[in-house]
Amino acid sequence: MTTDDYNRKGEKFLELFNKGKEFTEELLRENQRLRYRLASVEATGAPSANQEEIQQLRAQMQVLADENRRLHERFREVEEENKDFATRYVEIEEQNNNLANLYVASYQLHSTLDFREVIQIVQEIVINLIGAEAFAILLLDEKTNELRTIACEEEAPWTGLENLTVRWGEGVLGKVAKSGEAYYVNQDIEGGEITLEKPLAAVPLKIKEHVIGQIVIYSLLQQKDSFSAVDYELFSLLAAHAATAIFSSKLYSQSERKLNTIQSFLDLLTTT
What is the tens place of the pLDDT at every residue in 29-67? Predict the structure, then answer.
């Protein structure tokens, strides 16, 4: 069901409530009129004709009471449906916001080929959208087969992240890099103890099946208790899109440096 469908349903509920309110007020007025009429007839103390009218009035009042009871029951049902509708509406609004965040994050990652800017964008996504407080971004050094920190945010007690080094296949982080499978503490560690080697989350940055780096999260912002559904979507986005953006910007930076070196060499030749 789309947002427009829920809007139409909300309008229908509002219309039903308004009609119900009018009908209830009418029932109350009619009930009051009958009660007044019944009291008047009983007060006259007339014989059988009045007794027959009294019976009719009482029967009408019973019908009204039954209708009022039925209406209240329907109101309770509608109220429950309305609560469910309101909950679903909030969920849809949250999903829409999450989709917007995912779109913005994806767009930002591919908006530049400057390596430093790409890393800065990844940091902003991890901080602002995921809500990480202490984390490190690691990149694979293929010469040494180690992952080293290229950017980080440190908060006590998580210090020394700028010097974090991970050997391929060793420990939790090394195994994440080797397997290419993301790691989350609540899935893999009993007791939930967080250490440098066993963080809250470790997300490999992959191009197809080739791991080029890793995002390691150690703590979340104070107002955030745990990862949400959209966080896992962001992790999946980062695993692919951030990896592509980082790899492309790194290649571009390397090629640009080489071109500048060649151009400087050619300039030197032409001036001699």
Answer: 666 666 666 566 556 655 544 567 667 767 777 777 777
- Please check whether residues 96 and 165 belong to one and the same domain: no
In angstroms, the CA 174 to CA 180 distance is 10
Q: In this structure, are 134 and 244 located in the same domain? A: yes
* Residue 84, CA distances (Å) to 4, 73, 88, 228 in order: 16, 17, 6, 21
Q: Are residues 142 and 185 in the same domain?
A: yes
Mean pLDDT of 123-127: 87
At 269 the pLDDT is 61
Task: Write out the H or E segment, with its range, that includes residue 271.
Answer: helix 243-271
pLDDT tens digits, one per residue of 15-31: 665 666 666 666 666 66
Domain containing 243 equals 129-259
Residue 13 covered by a domain: yes
Helix (H), strand (E) at residue 81: helix 48-109
Q: Is 114 left (phi over 0), alpha (psi -120 to 50) or beta?
A: beta
Per the CB < 8 A criterion, the answer to whether 205 and 246 are in contact is: yes
- Count Cα atoms within 13 angstroms, Cβ side, for 98: 16
Would residue 114 count as lying in a domain? no
Distance of CA 28 to the CA centre of its chain: 46
In the chain, the number of structural domains is 2
Residue 208 predicted with pLDDT over 70: yes
pTM score, two decimals? Answer: 0.60
Last residue of a domain, one of 49, 74, 107: 107
